[in-house]
Fold this protein.
Amino acid sequence: MIDSVMIITLAGKGGDGAVSFRKEKFVPRGGPDGGNGGIGGNVWIVASKEVTTLANFRNGRRYLAKDGISGGRQNRHGKKGQDAFLYVPVGTVVREIIPDGHKEVVGDLNHDKAKIIIAHGGAGGRGNKEFVSPTNQVPLLREQGEDGEKTEIELELQTLAEVGIVGKPNAGKSTLLQQLTNAKPVIGDYPFTTKQPVLGVMEEPTRTTLIAEIPGLIQGAHVGVGLGHRFLQHAERSGLFIHIIDGTSSTVLDDFNMVEEELKFYDEDLIKKRKVVVINKRDICDSDDAIRQLRSKENLKEAEILAVSAKTGEGIRELEVAVWELIEEYKQNTNISHNQTLEIPRKRRKEVWEDVEWDETNQKATIHFSPAIRLVSLLNLDDFRVQPQLIDELRKNGTINAMVNAGVKPGNTIRIGDWEFEWEYEV
Ligand SMILES: Nc1nc2c(ncn2[C@@H]2O[C@H](COP(=O)(O)OP(=O)(O)O)[C@@H](O)[C@H]2O)c(=O)[nH]1
Ligand SMILES: [Mg+2]
């Protein structure tokens, strides 16, 4: 089973802005009416209960959203590029691989329809209409659309159980899990057979649920090892516990209290969860007596207590019914409605103003600033009217300032994108 995959997501590029002028009778050149480009499409990761594995994803593959459409004449703005939706199973954790190599969790898609934008589409370029100003009535400028974000991510499916089986070592947790589900846990006469949570699916024709055997708590608490983070996640996320007790024990109530104490030790909230208490090994013990002992405890007077034999299957059907009932109840009471879409906010990575790169030998400054590059890229620089407009705009967006701060002097060469020119202005 594939439970982790690395992919690359590429959002759409923004559409380019247009340069255009209104055509009017008797007016040689009407006002500017070049429209803006549309925003590029976003890439979303969406949790869906219809999807059960990550098997449709291929390691290293790129997943793309559509580019925005370019602006047109008559103020026609380009259409937004279509978003791409990547559907993953509920329980998928999304980690972004940061350029420096470390991974950062950006989303835990733990319920149906939870979603996150993992790569934002690029902004649309502005058309010439947007460049009109009191000093520039005939703008010949337009902007290239911005590149979409490129994000490398890791998807990891963390299947978390709805039901946790807890109990002292040897109580019969593994045997019970095997009775209730398709799991094949190790069953042994000696304690501590299970160190990792073992998962199994409990199925009925119309519903399924995931059950985890939570490893013997006692050993972990005392030695301080063994029970990983994963255990806690299962325990915390599970909606209810089956607390199983060995009915042949002469200290049934103490056994129960001991496990409750251990749970409390990890997290106070754990013991507040709904639970079914199960007296096990009813084939070889006096289960009525065990139940009586438990009922002597104040908060167990009204509790749901059942006697089963995980080995022979006696009482298992009743237990199943009780578990399904509690699951349904739990689902109705959780405030996550199943139609609700949860959008996990994630900001675009900030555009970093990279320094002007200074080449001493050639007395040349290269500008690495995407708004400046996008502005320069599509212009007809042979048109003598364009350059002064461009310089004016570069002044407005801070490029000139950065150049001056970097020590650029008249006579130096400036490179922005593919455009190289000699800086001749005093500032
Ligand atoms: N007679 C009897 N033995 C059981 C029953 N349930 C479990 N056992 C035995 O108890 C021992 C411990 O069971 P296991 O499921 O490994 O317990 P765990 O440590 O809680 O996972 C094994 O030898 C099982 O065969 C039961 O209902 N009746
Ligand atoms: Mg076990």
Notes: The first helix runs from residue 173 to 180. The chain has a mean pLDDT of 86.
